[in-house]
Amino acid sequence: MFETVIYEGGVYKADEMRDLVEDLGGFVLSEHKMQLEIHMVMAVPVEDLDVVEQKAEELLGEIKRMPLAGTEIAVVGMSLARHHMPHPVCDIAEYLRRHGAKSNVIGLARGYGREVAQLSAREKRLLEEHDLIVFVVGNFRDCIENYKLDIVRQIEEKPVVVVGGPEEIDADDIVYVGGIGRKPYRFRKGKEITKLDEIIDVVSDLIEERKARMSEDPPVVPPFVLKDELNRRLHIEERVTSPMPITLQLDGVRIKVPYDEWADDIAETEVFEWKVKEIADVIPSHMDDHTLVKLKPKSLVEG
After folding, report:
1. Which among 223, 159, 205 is positioned nearest to 1, based on CA atoms?
2. Distance separating alpha carbons of residues 128 and 124, to the nearest angstrom
3. What phi, psi does 2 have (nearest 5°)?
4. What's 5's DSSP letter?
5. Helix (H) or strand (E) run with residue 44 in it
6. How far is residue 263's CA from residue 261's CA, in Å, rounded to a whole number?
7. Is 110 helix (H, G, I), strand (E, B) or coil?
């Protein structure tokens, strides 16, 4: 397994860090130079991370871990109505982005009013396309425990975190972060930032648990290798104007291209000695007209 980190240091001798990572079997995912400084996002084998950290210290640079890099997370408001959106949905989504995740804000079509709130089949499938889902609920304990958690429990395939106003709720089967209710302003105070950090810690733990389970039977190629090969052979980032046209997930990628037009080309693309269709499922997404490429476990490909 790989861990995604960012190296921040001087441009001088940065090529030594690049060569070291590649010699260790890792990958340089992106580089951003700013005058005399460089920010290098790298995927490093977990067992060699200490070697990379020692090299960064030698070069007077710094290694920062990005536990959520390579993940796509849904941040769900119960609806887009004015009485739901004063919750800190956007603050949470932005904070997840700062820690490496690609976050999508989603409002439920029938999340308003506890008597009519529901999660449609399409919304459920859309949310389960993500690596993790964060539900931002309200301030009222009765409404959360007796109505909104019924919606949350319908998500079965992916980990879920619930964020709400009460400090605690009576639900042992739910991962819950309390003390975050309706706020008619951005989170700026120290105790508010501490709460956002608490969400990051909880989300990071769940992502690490999922990575650990996947490491028992990982994909034949890591998702970032798949992303690099698809982009190199199909020139997706040159042909698609959408921001982040290829989004990394723990078990594949989301590509912002129409499935009907691109599916065959993606499936026939070669990645090392395989074609994509041999190591992954190429399927239409429920988000807009995107295409999902979900990598198969190694046991299904080599077995």
Report:
1. 223
2. 6
3. -115, 155
4. E
5. strand 37-45
6. 6
7. strand
Whether 2-65 shares its CATH topology with 72-213 is answered no
- The structure tokens 């190429």 sit at 282
pLDDT above 70 (res 86): no
Structure tokens at 221: 């190629």
Per DSSP bridges, beta strands 252-255 and 291-295 are antiparallel
Q: Is the CATH code 3.40.50.2300 the one for domain 72-213?
A: yes
Report d(CA 135, CA 173) in Å as an integer.
15
Spatial contact of 254 and 129, defined as CB atoms under 8 Å apart: yes
Angstrom distance (rounded) from CA 196 to CA 8? 24
Instruction: For the sheet with 72-77, list strands across it.
Output: 102-107, 72-77, 132-136, 160-163, 175-177
Tokens matching residue 49: 């991370």
* The CA-based dihedral angle spanning residues 43, 49, 55, 60, taken in that order and rounded to the nearest 10 degrees: 80
Please report which confidence band the pLDDT of residue 181 belongs to, taking 50, 70 and 90 as the band edges. Answer: confident
Reduced to 3 states (helix: H, G, I; strand: E, B; else coil), residue 270 is: strand
- Other C-beta atoms closer than 10 Å to the C-beta of 8 total 14
Are 293 and 276 contacting, i.e. CB atoms less than 8 angstroms apart? yes
> Cβ–Cβ contacts within 10 Å for residue 134, how many?
25
Give domain 2-65's CATH number out of 3.60.15.10, 1.10.357.10, 3.40.30.10, 3.30.70.260. 3.30.70.260
pLDDT in tens, 222-261: 898 899 899 989 999 899 988 889 999 999 999 999 999 9
- Domain limits of the chain? 2-65, 72-213, 223-302
